[in-house]
């Protein structure tokens, strides 16, 4: 019988951690992970393993790790039918978003998963998350052409996902996009929400991101000297600004002057909302009309993770400011809902 081949990549995270002698959780080596999960032998696919030399807590993930993962997938792309990446949950949504941009014309599933409790713990959610992620990646009928996150019985589009709980087994949500698979007694494949693969294009792996970016969250009373230091730093090329509601910021002239100066310096300013759900509509309120006029661009309904990693990706690929602005506002990997 034909068995799909899956590459299971272990990067670290709670999923494979153990307590050290002081009680703190530290990543273990991958050999123990296989020992703790003998059930994977029962899956009807062929599984090969790859581990980071030094497994890490995902708080230690850097853009170079995203690129290393993309290169690893590129090297193994034609030998495997799908990839499952075990990763800490803390920065899982950043890695999934970054990979979605780095892996252009993906035709195979890349599913990231992790756990709130380590495999070695009796009530651990790791077992279900890992097994279901592998089952979806190796499904004999459907090949999902996307970077996804599997967590708490749901498969989400990676670049639509954000971590919402450090306690619940349902640690993630995809606030502005439906789930791709709901797992219960049966696997409910929501095919109409999946990206469509264009089989005439070969996988293209991008290997650069620009880290001269910043994230600025506005709050009432933020000191103007802090706004200046965030928006006018000479090295920074692009800033994601988390604004109120549908994209609103104060319309006092002294604040708008800083925004204007930042834009005049050639920086890309992307407006995303602090709300979990909904989108930016610049010009809906007077408090966002000026932003639109000055050239702040809308991040529509992107998550913070998607907006930041997309900006890092595009700034590394394109020089023209107009092109960066255009691509930032376009749907390139299913990360935003294109306004009509
Ligand atoms: N600190 C851990 C990590 O992100 C948390 C987790 O895995 O859930 O690596």
Plain-language structure description:
The chain folds into two domains: 201 residues, Rossmann fold, CATH 3.40.50.1170; 116 residues, Rossmann fold (3-Layer(aba) Sandwich). Helix content is 28%, strand content 20%. Strands 4-1-5-7-8-9-12-13 form an eight-stranded mixed β-sheet, with helices on both faces. A hairpin with a 3-residue loop joins strand 12 and strand 13. The longest helix has 14 residues. It is globular, with a radius of gyration of 21 Å. Bound molecules: aspartic acid. Aspartic acid (ASP) binds next to loops.
Draw up the topology in text.
Layout: E1 5-10, E2 17-19, E3 25-27, H1 30-36, E4 46-51, H2 63-76, E5 82-86, H3 92-102, E6 103-104, E7 110-113, H4 126-137, E8 147-151, E9 154-157, E10 162-163, E11 172-173, E12 181-183, E13 187-189, E14 204-205, E15 213-217, H5 224-231, E16 238-243, H6 253-264, E17 268-273, H7 286-294, E18 297-298, H8 304-317, H9 321-328
Parallel strand pairs: 1-4, 1-5, 5-7, 7-8, 15-16, 16-17, 17-18
Antiparallel strand pairs: 2-3, 6-14, 8-9, 9-12, 10-11, 12-13
Helix pairs in contact: 2-3, 3-8, 5-6
Bound molecules: aspartic acid.
Summarize the structure.
This protein has helices at residues 30-36, 63-76, 92-102, 126-137, 224-231, 253-264, 286-294, 304-317, 321-328, and strands at residues 5-10, 17-19, 25-27, 46-51, 82-86, 103-104, 110-113, 147-151, 154-157, 162-163, 172-173, 181-183, 187-189, 204-205, 213-217, 238-243, 268-273, 297-298.
